[in-house]
């Protein structure tokens, strides 16, 4: 008996051409269901698996290949003992298994009812793939149309067979991880709590030239079935995205969306090296951009900008004099895209994708593992702010405190943010001392600190930040509270005529 190939695929890309090429090389094809029909319709000689097993497909297709004639043919070692057993049963070897699985993740992603999702859990497919991968010394296993050409070679090396086997097990592992996540209760295949075991079901979605630095390889992966505004964004102008572009765009968009949910207007967020450097709210995209830019014209150079509204030609032309790496917005008008492509060809212009789901888990790499926590998603409305000073914040100060609190949450600790009139006027982030963070924010603000409100992502261990802020003209402060010296800090605020609010919630970000 000549070589036999079993082909049963959901993704039928190139399968007819592949099957025809195998037949031309003397292979016999076995197949089932839709793949059998596709090959037969194309005039490719093919035998139904049911003709080999002697049993029809059962239970609406749930049972087709779970038979010794199939799995014996795949799993038999190519040696006398196993081959004699096969021959005694009238079975032949199966020397190539080309299988990819029912579209489980795609079924989940389109919001199908549970019954349809369950019906798209493949059983026979993973069994054949794993059997073939186990016996890869004698069986070629293909789960990706990109490998079809390799299988048509006269000889496939041991190293290539082993690589294909590893790829097959990765394929079934990721498939099982998606099913596990779904059955644990999250239809977006993302964990929603801290489980005893966590499988990172990652699939590559983008190549990048390198990681944070040229000597570090890098790529972008999707977790499970999630969709994100940055990894699923459309690049409508400019160069391909880099590793750092993705990271900064994700940070900018997250803060932009959080502020956009607070009140009306258009928000613009400029980010540099993961930290906000200029944030503003205005009536339109151009005004918001100009305010965010002017908040720190030095740091915004080479930055990444997120705009929470449509970027039109007027807003685009306002960016003429500033070098930026990335612009991301929910929409960019065609004339603005055309202008960017002609006038700023290096600027990556992104139209944000729709975030289908966001994992509640935040992972930080450690040597040999990960530190895992729930994402810091506590909204302002979940707080119970307490005014702890004699002086109450005015309405405009409350607005700025809330604006600064959202911004400082997205800055690296230690962090202090000054805001006035819906614009950041001073930011200090990533400092090893809170007073240094405050000094940087005040220096950044200069005269604009007069009448500003200040937010700190953690409590004040001393009253030094209060006195520094008051000296610069700050009139209202928001911080978590909870320090041993809170009475001294409150007394200093009262002495200096400031209002101070405790949130009872900190926002460390390391």
From TrEMBL:
Domain MGS-like per the UniProt entry, residue ranges: 1-143
Gene Ontology molecular function, alphabetical: IMP cyclohydrolase activity; phosphoribosylaminoimidazolecarboxamide formyltransferase activity
E.C. designation(s): 2.1.2.3, 3.5.4.10
Reaction(s) catalysed by this chain's protein: IMP + H2O = 5-formamido-1-(5-phospho-D-ribosyl)imidazole-4-carboxamide; (6R)-10-formyltetrahydrofolate + 5-amino-1-(5-phospho-beta-D-ribosyl)imidazole-4-carboxamide = 5-formamido-1-(5-phospho-D-ribosyl)imidazole-4-carboxamide + (6S)-5,6,7,8-tetrahydrofolate
Keywords: Hydrolase, Multifunctional enzyme, Purine biosynthesis, Transferase
Gene Ontology terms: cellular component: cytosol
SMART domains recorded: AICARFT_IMPCHas, MGS
Cross-referenced Pfam families: AICARFT_IMPCHas, MGS
Keyword Hydrolase: yes
GO biological process, one term: 'de novo' IMP biosynthetic process
UniProt pathway: Purine metabolism; IMP biosynthesis via de novo pathway; 5-formamido-1-(5-phospho-D-ribosyl)imidazole-4-carboxamide from 5-amino-1-(5-phospho-D-ribosyl)imidazole-4-carboxamide (10-formyl THF route): step 1/1; Purine metabolism; IMP biosynthesis via de novo pathway; IMP from 5-formamido-1-(5-phospho-D-ribosyl)imidazole-4-carboxamide: step 1/1
Signal peptide coordinates: none
Family, similarity comment: Belongs to the PurH family.
Entry-linked PANTHER family: BIFUNCTIONAL PURINE BIOSYNTHESIS PROTEIN ATIC (PTHR11692:SF0), BIFUNCTIONAL PURINE BIOSYNTHESIS PROTEIN PURH (PTHR11692)
Free-text note on domains in this protein's UniProt record: The IMP cyclohydrolase activity resides in the N-terminal region.
Record's protein name: Bifunctional purine biosynthesis protein PurH
Source organism of the structure: Deinococcus radiopugnans
